C-alpha cells in the first residue's frame, strides 16, 4: 500500500503515515514520517503500548509531498520513501488486518492517492 503524505504544521508533532495490520485499536503497525524529527519510523502497538521497531534518519521537509509505501509479504515488512527502501523488519507473526491513515498529536497532515494492492488487485483512492 502507498499514500502521498504532506506534513504541514504542528508544534508537538508534524507526522503522518500508514497504519496496517490493524487487529483493533490497541494492536497494529505504523510506518510514518515526521518533519520535526527528520525521520521515518516503524512502530508496533501491542496491547496499546508503542514499540519502535526501526528508525531511519531522513530529511523530511514541511509543505512537501512524499510517497510513503509499505510492502508486506507474510512476516516481512519493507518501507519505502519516494520509492527508495528505507526500512526492513521481520515481525514475530504474519502481518494481516485492516489498514488506515495515521497522524498524531497536533499534526496537520495532508494525504492523497491511497493505493492498495493485494495479489495483483489494485485499488486507487484519491482524496
Helix/strand layout:
Elements: E1 2-9, E2 15-24, E3 27-34, E4 39-46, E5 49-57, E6 66-73, E7 76-81, E8 84-90, E9 98-102, E10 108-118, E11 121-125
| Major beta sheet summary | 6 strands, antiparallel
Category by helix and strand content = mainly beta
Q: Spans with pLDDT under 50 lasting ≥5 residues?
A: none
End-to-end separation in angstroms reads 15 Å
Major β-sheet strand ordering: 8-7-6-1-10-11
Beta-strand content bin: over 45%
Share of residues in helices: under 10%
CATH fold field value: Jelly Rolls
- Any idea what the shape is? globular
CATH superfamily grouping: Exo-inulinase, domain 1
CATH class term: Mainly Beta
Taken together, the total number of domains comes to 1
Mean pLDDT: 95
Sequence of secondary-structure elements = EEEEEEEEEEE
For the secondary structure, the number of strands is 11
Keywords: Kinase, Pyruvate, Transferase
GO molecular function: kinase activity
Organism: Candidatus Sulfobium mesophilum
InterPro entries: ConA-like_dom_sf
Amino acid at each position: 500500500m502507498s499514500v502521498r503524505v504532506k506534513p504541514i504544521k504542528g508544534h508537538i508533532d508534524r507526522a503522518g503515515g500508514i497504519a496496517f495490520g490493524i487487529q483493533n485499536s490497541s494492536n497494529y503497525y505504523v510506518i510514518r514520517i515526521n518533519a520535526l524529527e527528520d525521520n521515518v519510523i516503524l512502530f508496533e502497538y501491542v496491547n496499546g503500548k508503542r514499540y519502535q521497531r526501526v528508525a531511519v534518519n531522513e530529511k523530511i521537509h514541511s509543505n512537501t509531498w512524499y510517497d510513503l509505501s509499505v510492502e508486506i509479504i507474510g512476516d516481512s515488512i519493507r518501507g519505502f520513501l519516494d520509492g527508495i527502501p528505507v526500512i526492513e523488519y521481520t515481525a514475530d507473526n504474519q502481518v494481516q488486518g485492516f489498514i488506515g491513515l495515521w497522524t498524531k498529536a497536533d499534526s496537520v497532515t495532508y494525504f492523497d492517492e491511497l493505493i492498495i494492492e493485494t495479489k495483483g488487485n489494485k485499488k486507487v483512492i484519491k482524496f
